[in-house]
Structure formats: structure tokens, C-alpha cells
Write a structure and sequence with these properties.
heterotrimer; A alpha/beta (326); B mainly alpha (302); C mainly alpha (305); A: 326 residues; Rossmann fold; eight-stranded mixed β-sheet; B: 302 residues; MetI-like fold; 11 helices; elongated
């Protein structure tokens, strides 16, 4: 049984302008200890998916229209907040994009770091503090006993993200959800944080759900990658397969737009056209208007991910029907 | 309040004033039933009070100063819809005329405080440095003045004159406005588009009037709306002290004061002016709150 | 921190000096005088009174004289109550006003904070709309309507307490309610706004992700930041409450400071006006200093600056 199994998740936002279908029939699994990456551009629904698992979706305007998120046999979406609080922070932890605003500016680092232990393990303060010290050392915060007494604004962005990681991992969770953990950081610090997450994963053996808009970040880190577009899953495969045996034109386009992979002096590749309008979804494949491989039936027929190769799903009609080589 | 739902949670929303910003604001206000109710009540009360002379002459049939000592105080009836006061004057007529004065004091005094406060605050915030420090220090000092005493002194010393009432109240209320405007100017000055304007070599005055003041409009509208009820309360307080407008004129404050003195015997003399005043203040506050949400103005009054 | 407090205290002195000067000349340049209104007094009597209080001397000399007295902490004699000095009047009336003010403050804080928290946590439900409607009423009904209304209901019709007077403990209830109502309403609105502002911050989401319950999120994570507007408001509010309210004291027949302040202005009781202004100003300045200290204590970012 997978650690987390998300089935047919559907989420919409009810706004003044209409209903935004942010996530449509998204399904995926994470095994114990596995690292899954979700890649997509802004508005692809990758963050919304993860927020709903953690019960952090602002409702209203958000609404979970259907689906399940079964974690270790329990559907997290069906739990009350009280029930969910037995899981989040203990067995499922989350770190966020902006470490500058994600820590409470009014509380000492120590208070925030030991909070999960106080909430979930009813640990006494001295023991909790010892654990907090260990964690700070583990995430590479030097002079940690002094640092514990400090406030978030006295830390740099990278240091704060290290604190966030220590806080998320202090209860040794089974699953860590990381929502663009390096996006707000300097490039040099990004690499350090990714290395740290790798190291912590080796030590603690937790599964990781890494959300990123950066295919490069995900490819170096994850066992499997899922590509989302317009609230839907486009392709999911083992990382190597996704790169060397790509089964969806959108994934191909994403790869081509990574600057480092392009030839110097050539104009940068960009995907033509505008991102999808989720208020007025089109019939058929959402990527069809921008796709270089589009044929007439792409905009007509509904499409859902299908296994087109072993452990390799694709939601491209042409790949499914014609085994289109990309 | 929840901000307007963002279709894309990944991206922070950008909220720069623009045509669509005002459209959005108007739409948000339109959806706020309480604020609309407030707008409606304020507008209709103002209209009715403005038309008081016409209404008194043709509809009510009594003027606000027409005494009828033989009649004395009677409770509401067919001739006198809201009753009469101990001098036999029609309460409805007095209510309308009182409303004229109360609303006028509210608007004019707010306008006075607005003019002083906006100019003072904008100058202080825009000049910055030493000028700013000195100007704000003066505001701090003035904040420590007991304003009731100050207003009483003004009215006692210079006689009871309605123009003076505006000036006295306006002079009391501008301090907060100055602080708000200064804070806004300081904040806006830091933003990129001002940097850009400066980099383009625009003159200081032009930057102030073309770029900074329009961005101040939201907070100023909101706080002006919320200042009017405050001013009306202050006017009522002055009336309680006997420093309001003089007989035979009246204001809601005066009527409430007179009514409160005889509330056990002639309750309608208190009820109607108090309800009129409270309704107006409610409406203005609802409208102000609605505008605050609609224009997305943050922060408390101080 | 000690240096900060000391500096602020030193800054108080020139502020009070400026206020005293402004007040002095504003009073004196205005027409009329303390004895001008006593019509029965003959010209000679008035002249003798003026001479007695030194009002016949050149204005600037009077100014210097009064400043010297003020420096010695002597606020001077009261013209209206010739047998008493301003110092004595304040010493006698302030405890009464302060007691009433404290009771009103407690009313305001308890009611205001409870209403504000309930409204913020249960936004857009009954527990938001109901207390906020009450707060709106509290803001819009003038004190001199609220007082008689409360008297009418609780003293005259229900006969639970006296309509006026300041003798028994239960005499405190109605004045404290009347005076506290406006402040309770204001605090409720500030607390609601402040809490809502904090509750939509990212770090609250972090706390939720940690599995913190509603109570922990409110008291541990949101309250500090959410109370900042309330604390800022409390400075001037406490000064205003404790130095007496003319309206409430008049309605309930309470021998407090507020009535002396206002009657002094009416009577052009120069020394009493000066005393009132300086006493109130000093109170405001001290309260604002206390508030600033509390704000720094609440907000670690300020603490290190």
C-alpha cells in the first residue's frame, strides 16, 4: 500500500468571475521513502493540490469537489480539523516557499521549533529543547544554542529555511511536503537547501513531495516526477524516463525551455501562446492551443492519463493512440 | 476580510491602483449590503434635511421656530407627526433643521480637518528628514493637549458662532489625518514607480501631485468618511455643554440634550433625535467600513 | 532601554513648557477675565481682585511669575474656589476620576477583547455580526444618551441601583458602563481588525501545518501581533479615562476631575485651566511612553533597534 494515495482530486475556486477549476481529477501515489516531484507553471494546480492535503486550502473560496487523499489508510480530506491535527506536523509536515514570512516574527526560534513536540508528543521543555538543538545542528545551523534564543528577523533567508526544515522534521514525519522551498532564495543558497533536504532524507528516510516550477531542481532530487498543466496531470514517470523517454509534448516543451540545456547564442526557447484560462476551460486537451504536435481531434476528445509504458503515464491523445515519437 | 480570491494561488496578487482597481473596489462596495444601506440612508437623510425649508412649508406645515405655548408638549399625532416640545414647536420640523446643521457641521469640519491634515501630512512625509521630524514632533505635542478644554476655550472666548465651531472641531481632528497621510506618503515614496518617476527626472511637485496624491485617495476617502461621525459626536458633546448652536436654531446634539433632560416625561423628545443621529452615525460608519474593505485600506486609525 | 526611557522623560520637559506657554497666551489674549462675568462686583472690587492675584501686572511679568511657580510644582490658586489651590483640587478629585476610569477601563477591556476575538475567529457568522453590531451602537450613541438610558432602565424601572451618587460599590456600576461602552466598542473593532490582519499571515498557515489547534493559534501565534492596535489605542484612552469625563460625572453626580476641567474653562479660572492642561498633558505623555515600552516589548523587531 502506498504511503499517500491521492485519487481523482477535484478542487475549484468560486470567485466573482465564475468557477475556477484549479485541480481536475488528479491522482498520484507516493511510496514510503520515495521522493515525488510535481512540476508545473503558476496556476497549474500543484500547490493547491498539496494545500488541500494539509487542510490549508482557504475555504471559501476554495472547495474540494471530490476525491480522496488516503494517507496510511486514512482519507485526510474527510477528517475534521481536529482529526487532521493528529497528522499534520506529526506524520506529514510542510515547508513553504517564503521563509521570510513563514516564521512567526513574535516568537523565539526555540518556541517555534519545539512546538510540534509540545503539541504532538507532550514532551517536556528540557527534552524538547535538546531535540531542537540536535535538529539545528543537523540542518547546519552553527552556534545553535545561541541561535535558539533569537528571533526570525535576525536570520538570513537561507537560515530561516533551515529552521523551517528543522521544524518540519523534528517529529520525524513519514512525509514532507515542500512547496517551492528554494524559489525565494539566492541561487547559491538554493543548492545548499536542496543538498540539506537530500541529506535529511537519507538520515530520516521520509518520503518527500517536492513542488517546483523548475524541472531542473526536481530532476536532481526526485525518484519520480509528475508534470501538471491547467490543473491536470500531463505526464508522470520515473525521473530518467521522463527525460529520456518523454511521452508528452508539454514535458518536451518544458525541457527545451531550461536555459542551461540550450545552445549558447541561440534565442531562448519559450512555449508559444498564453497559459490556460481556467475560468473557461476548453474542450479536449488543455495544452492543445500551444502544442506543436496538435491535430484536429486534440481539441475535441477528452483525455485522461493512461499508462503508455511501464510505470509511465501520459495524457497526450496522440501518444496514447499513435505512439507519437517525441 | 478575505482578499478577492486569486484564481492562481501560486502567484502573489499585485494590487496597484488602476482603472480596474477602482472598478473592483466599486464592485466590492456594491456587494456590501450594509455599506450600500449606509450610503442610501446618508444620501436620503441629507436630501431630506437639505429640503427642510420646502418640506416644512408645504408638507409638515410648521416652521422650526413657530411656538405654541398653549399647546405645550404633545406626543406624536396626526397634526404633529413626531409630537411637539414644551414650547409647542413641531419636533419633525426641528429635527429636519437640526439635521441640516449637524450634517453641515460634520461635513464642513471634516473638510477643514481634511485640508489641514492632508497638506500637513503630505508636506511632512514628502519632505522627510529634519522638516518631517519637527512637523511630527509638533503633532505629538498637540496630541497631548486636552482637546475638550481647547475647544471650550475657543468657543467661550470667541463667542458661539457656527463658522468657529467648524474651525474649532476641524482644528482638533486634523492631527490623525496628518499622521495617516504622512504614513502613506512615506510608504508610497519607497515604492518602485516613484523611483522610476524620479529616475526619469520628474520635478518634485509633479511627483507629489501626479503620482503620490492619487494613491492617497483610498485612505483619505475612508478616513474622511469615518471622521464625519466623530465630528458629529463632538458637536453633540459641545451642545451638551451648551456650546453648540444657539436658540432658536438647533442641531441634533441640542435636541438630544434637551430631550435627555425630560426623557421620563416626554420620551419622544429624546427618541427621535437620538434615532436620527444614531442612524446617521451607523450609516456613515458602515459606509466607511465598506469603503475600507472595498479600497483595501489597512491599518487602524492611529 | 533605560536610556530610551530617560531620553523620553527629558523630552517631556520642553513639551510641557511649550504647552504651558501656548495655554498661557491663548488664555490671556482672549477677551474677558475670571472676574469679568461677576456683574454684581463693582469696578473697585474687581480691580482689587485683579491686584490680589497679580492680574494687574504686565502680561510678560505674569508669565514669568507663573512659570516660576509651575517649576516649583505650584499650580496656583483657584479663582473660582478661592479657599483652595489647584493642587488641592486635583489631589482631591483625581482619585475619584481615576477609580471610575479604572473600572470603566476594565469594562472596556473585558467586553471589547472578548467581542473582538469572537468576531475575528468566527468571521462572517453570528458571533461576528452580533458583537460588532453592539460595538457600532456603542460608538454611535453619545454618552449623554447612554447614561440617562441606563439610569432609566436599571435605576428607575428595575430599581437595581441608585440613579446618581458616589457612595456605595454598586453606585460604580452604571457610570463605569456608561463611560466604558464607547471604549469597549472601539477596542472590539481594533481587536477584530488586528487579529484578522494577523490571521491571514503566512506564519499562521505554518502553525496550522504544525497541527496547532484553534486555541493555540489564537493565544500563542496571533494574539501578540493582533493586540498591537489595541495597545496603541490604550495610551490616549487610559489618559482620557482616568482624568475624568465631564458628561458621566455630571449625569451621575460624581465629584471627579472632569467637571473641574470643564467648569474651569467656562469660568476662565486661569490657574485651574493651566493646571488641567498640564496635568492631562503629562498624563498623556506618560501613558504614551508606557505604551511605547509595551509595544517594543511585544514586538521583537523593535527591541533590537
Amino acid at each position: 500500500m502506498p504511503l499517500l494515495s491521492v485519487n481523482q482530486l477535484r478542487i475549484s475556486f468560486h470567485t466573482r468571475a465564475g468557477v475556477v477549476r484549479a485541480v481536475q481529477d488528479v491522482s498520484f501515489q507516493i511510496e514510503r521513502g520515495e521522493a515525488l516531484g510535481i512540476v508545473g507553471e503558476s496556476g497549474s494546480g500543484k500547490s493547491v493540490t498539496c494545500y488541500s492535503i494539509m487542510g490549508l486550502l482557504p475555504q471559501p473560496p476554495g472547495r474540494i469537489e471530490g476525491g480522496q487523499a488516503v494517507f496510511d489508510g486514512v482519507d485526510l480530506l474527510a477528517l475534521s480539523h481536529r482529526g487532521l491535527n493528529k497528522y499534520r506536523g506529526l506524520r506529514v509536515s510542510m515547508i513553504f516557499q517564503d521563509p521570510m514570512t513563514s516564521l512567526n516574527p513574535y516568537l523565539r526560534i526555540e518556541e517555534q521549533l519545539i512546538e510540534p513536540l509540545l503539541i504532538h508528543e507532550k514532551m517536556d521543555r528540557p527534552a524538547a529543547r535538546r531535540r531542537a538543538l540536535e535538529m539545528l545542528v543537523a540542518v547546519g545551523v552553527t552556534d545553535s544554542s545561541h541561535r535558539l534564543r533569537m528571533y526570525p528577523h535576525q536570520f538570513s533567508g537561507g537560515m530561516r529555511q533551515r529552521v523551517m526544515i528543522a521544524m518540519a522534521l523534528i517529529t520525524k514525519p513519514d512525509l514532507l511536503i515542500a512547496d517551492e522551498p528554494t524559489t525565494a532564495l539566492d541561487v547559491t543558497v538554493q543548492a545548499q537547501i536542496l543538498d540539506l533536504m537530500k541529506k535529511m532524507r537519507e538520515e530520516l528516510g521520509m518520503a518527500i513531495l517536492l513542488i517546483s516550477h523548475d524541472l531542473g531542481v526536481v530532476s536532481g532530487f526526485c525518484d519520480r516526477v509528475m508534470v501538471m498543466y491547467a490543473g491536470r496531470v500531463m505526464e508522470s514517470a520515473r525521473t530518467a524516463d521522463l527525460f529520456y523517454d518523454t511521452k508528452h509534448p508539454y514535458t518536451r516543451a518544458l525541457q527545451k525551455s531550461i536555459p542551461a540545456l540550450q545552445v549558447k547564442g541561440q534565442e531562448l526557447y519559450t512555449i508559444a501562446g498564453a497559459p490556460p484560462d481556467l475560468l473557461h476551460p476548453l474542450a479536449g486537451c488543455p495544452f492543445a492551443p500551444r502544442c506543436g504536435y496538435v491535430v484536429d481531434y486534440c481539441a475535441r476528445e477528452e483525455v485522461a492519463p493512461l499508462e503508455v509504458a511501464p510505470a509511465h503515464g501520459s495524457a497526450c491523445l496522440r501518444v496514447q493512440k499513435e505512439k507519437l515519437p517525441l | 476580510m478575505m482578499p478577492a480570491p486569486a484564481p492562481q494561488l501560486d502567484e502573489p496578487m499585485d494590487a496597484q491602483p488602476s482603472a480596474s482597481f477602482w472598478q473592483d473596489a466599486w464592485h466590492r462596495l456594491w456587494q456590501n449590503k450594509l455599506a450600500l444601506f449606509g450610503l442610501f440612508v446618508v444620501a436620503s437623510l441629507s436630501l431630506v434635511c437639505f429640503l427642510a425649508p420646502l418640506l416644512c412649508a408645504h408638507v409638515i406645515g410648521f416652521s422650526y421656530q413657530e411656538q405654541n405655548l398653549a399647546l405645550g408638549p404633545v406626543s406624536p399625532n396626526r397634526t404633529h407627526w413626531l409630537g411637539t416640545d414644551p414650547l409647542g414647536r413641531d419636533v419633525l420640523a426641528r429635527l429636519l433643521y437640526g439635521g441640516r446643521i449637524s450634517l453641515m457641521v460634520g461635513l464642513c469640519a471634516t473638510a477643514v480637518s481634511l485640508v489641514i491634515g492632508v497638506i500637513y501630512g503630505a508636506v511632512s512625509g514628502f519632505a522627510g528628514g529634519k522638516t518631517d521630524m519637527v512637523l511630527m514632533r509638533m503633532v505629538d505635542i498637540l496630541y497631548a493637549l486636552p482637546f475638550t478644554i481647547f475647544v471650550i476655550l475657543l468657543t467661550v472666548f470667541f463667542g458661539q458662532n457656527i463658522i468657529l465651531l467648524f474651525v474649532a472641531i476641524g482644528a482638533v481632528e486634523w492631527l490623525t489625518m496628518a499622521r495617516i497621510v504622512r504614513g502613506q506618503v512615506m510608504a508610497i515614496k519607497q515604492r518602485e514607480f516613484i523611483e522610476a518617476a524620479r529616475a526619469l527626472g520628474l520635478r518634485r511637485r509633479r511627483i507629489l501631485f501626479r503620482h503620490i496624491l492619487p494613491n492617497l485617495l483610498g485612505p483619505i476617502i475612508v478616513f474622511a468618511t469615518l471622521t464625519v461621525p466623530e465630528v458629529m459626536l463632538l458637536e453633540a458633546f459641545l451642545s451638551f455643554l451648551g456650546l453648540g448652536v444657539q436658540a432658536p436654531h438647533s442641531s441634533w446634539g441640542v435636541l438630544i440634550k434637551e430631550g435627555a433632560e425630560v426623557m421620563e416625561e416626554y420620551p419622544w423628545l429624546l427618541t427621535y433625535p437620538a434615532v436620527a443621529m444614531a442612524l446617521t452615525l451607523f450609516s456613515l460608519n458602515f459606509l466607511g467600513d465598506g469603503l475600507r474593505d472595498a479600497l483595501d485600506v489597512h491599518g487602524s486609525k492611529d | 532601554m533605560i536610556r530610551f526611557v530617560a531620553r523620553r522623560f527629558l523630552e517631556t520637559i520642553p513639551v510641557l513648557f511649550i504647552l504651558a506657554t501656548v495655554t498661557f497666551f491663548m488664555m490671556r489674549l482672549a477677551p474677558g477675565g475670571p472676574f469679568a462675568s461677576e456683574k454684581q462686583a463693582s469696578k473697585e472690587v474687581r480691580a482689587r481682585m485683579d491686584a490680589h492675584y497679580g492680574l494687574d501686572k504686565p502680561l510678560f511679568q505674569q508669565y514669568l511669575l507663573q512659570m516660576r511657580h509651575l517649576l516649583q510644582g505650584d499650580l496656583g490658586p483657584s479663582f473660582k474656589y478661592p479657599s483652595r489651590t489647584v493642587n488641592e483640587i486635583i489631589a482631591q478629585a483625581f482619585p475619584v476620576s481615576a477609580e471610575l476610569g479604572l473600572e470603566a477601563l476594565i469594562v472596556a477591556l473585558v467586553l471589547g477583547l472578548m467581542a473582538g476575538m469572537a468576531a475575528a475567529l468566527k468571521q462572517n457568522t453570528f458571533w461576528d455580526h452580533f458583537p460588532m453590531s453592539l460595538a457600532m451602537i456603542g460608538l454611535c450613541v453619545p454618552t449623554f444618551v447612554m447614561g440617562p438610558l441606563l439610569i432609566s432602565v436599571f435605576a428607575l424601572h428595575l430599581d437595581w441601583c441608585n440613579a446618581a451618587g458616589w457612595f456605595l460599590p454598586r453606585d460604580r456600576v452604571l457610570p463605569a458602563l456608561t463611560l466604558g461602552a464607547f471604549y469597549a466598542a472601539y477596542i472590539a473593532r481594533l481587536a477584530r481588525g488586528g487579529l484578522l490582519e494577523v490571521l491571514r499571515q503566512d506564519f499562521i498557515r505554518t502553525a496550522r501545518a504544525k497541527g496547532a489547534g484553534a486555541a493555540r493559534i489564537l493565544f500563542r501565534h496571533a494574539l501578540r501581533g493582533g493586540m498591537l492596535p489595541v495597545v496603541s489605542f490604550l495610551g490616549p484612552a487610559i489618559a482620557g479615562l482616568l482624568t475624568g469625563s465631564f458628561v458621566v460625572e455630571t449625569i451621575f453626580g460624581i465629584p471627579g476631575l472632569g467637571r473641574y476641567f470643564v467648569t474651569a474653562a467656562f469660568n476662565r479660572d486661569y490657574c485651574m485651566i493651566m493646571g488641567s492642561v498640564l496635568f492631562y498633558a503629562a498624563f498623556v505623555i506618560v501613558m504614551n511612553l508606557v505604551v511605547d515600552i509595551v509595544l517594543v516589548w511585544l514586538n521583537p523587531k523593535l527591541r533590537f533597534e
